[in-house]
Design a protein that fits this description.
Distance between the termini: 39 Å
Strand content: 35-45%
């Protein structure tokens, strides 16, 4: 499969919602994305549980912490940034990763999932949340998913995910109380199986820019007083 991200030929624009990425050229770094915080030890992280929101080793000043949750059924999934590194996961059991990014910065990412066996498809899921130390709280930033356990990703499922994003986001945010914006969101696939074989996609790629704003979060997630900035 051709490498991803970089120069993109796409139709549409951010104002119209989710673009479709085409002819992507992306040279992925080989290093692992650096993990942060007390939840991560020895290259693995312990997932946050209900009632366990506080970061006992909080990010340094001018840094913001993010939680990345990844899972994929019958396939593998990569999350890659050309400047930060890569995370890889190949199991249906959800794995969590915690990373620190500078405030007032922007970072390109690509999520690429691929089926493990021809014709079986895959069911990827990636969720990103931002830490708010004042609460402490976690703000939803991005949720990418295609398909479900009993029906892997196909074009209809991809369009359903796209429509859900368009419906829920407010100027690039799933939660207006957070400080991180998702921009330039695009998705693409190299194709799928014939409809007689289920029509499942053999890969599913989502490209976006994570824009980390400098201001501190103040209100609880989804507080009605929050207005996207």
């Amino acid at each position: 499969m051709a490498p991803l991200l970089g120069a993109v030929c796409a139709h549409g624009s951010w104002d119209s919602g989710v673009e479709t990425a085409r002819h992507v050229d992306y040279a992925a770094p080989v290093q692992a994305l650096a993990l942060a915080g007390a939840r991560c030890q020895g290259g693995r992280c312990r997932c946050r549980r209900p009632g366990d929101d506080a970061e006992t080793a909080p990010p340094a000043p001018a840094q913001k912490r993010f939680e990345i949750r990844m899972s994929v059924d019958t396939g593998e999934i990569l999350l890659t940034s050309p400047t930060l590194g890569r995370l890889r996961h190949d199991g249906k059991q959800e794995e969590c990763y915690y990373v620190d990014l500078p405030a007032d910065s922007s970072h390109e990412f690509i999520i690429e999932s691929r089926e493990a066996h021809k014709g079986q498809g895959m069911t990827p899921s990636v969720r990103i949340a931002e830490y708010g130390p004042k609460g402490p709280w976690w703000y939803d930033v991005l949720a990418v998913g295609c398909g479900r356990s009993d029906h892997p990703c196909d074009r209809l499922a991809a369009k359903d995910w796209e429509q859900a994003w368009l419906t829920q986001r407010k100027r690039g945010r799933l939660d207006a109380c957070g400080s991180t914006v998702v921009s330039a969101l695009k998705w693409d696939t190299s194709g799928g199986q014939p409809m007689m074989d289920g029509g499942f996609l053999r890969d599913f790629r989502v490209q976006f820019v994570l824009v980390v704003k400098a201001f501190a979060t103040e209100l609880a997630p989804r507080d009605p007083r929050c207005v996207p900035q």
